[in-house]
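[Backbone geometry]
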Amino acid sequence: MDNASPTRDHPDTATDPGDLSLPSAPPSPPPTDSGAGERGSLTIRTKVAQRLAVRAALDTPGVLVHAAGLDKFTGRDLPRARVVISANRVRAHLFLAVSWPQSIPQVARAVQHNVADALSDYAGLHVDGIDIAVDHVVVRGDDAVTRSVQ
């Protein structure tokens, strides 16, 4: 037996590229573009939309995290959001604390814009409206007025 000649049993010793051919795989069917209804559905939970709205509000200059009195114990700190989702439409109600001396109407418009962008970009929802309620104006720093009982 001659060990110098290439055999089909040992393809790595073969020198003829014709000997290394692999069987061809059957052609795969072309991809079909199915409609969105055939692929599935996307459900955005209310809690997710609330968190998106609060995060977008906090990213707005002039909006602060604030809790006072019993709110510290009940977990009702600001900003807080309540959203109503129907199909792919959303309406949000936000409750905010704004820092002094910010312009409340300007901060409210900026929050509306940021929240609408976040809900439409990240959740794919159509925003019907953003209602803003400024529940507290926070005075910080040296210019805070303190009163004492005498």
Observations:
- The longest strand covers residues 126-138.
- The CA atoms of residues 4 and 57 lie 78 Å apart.
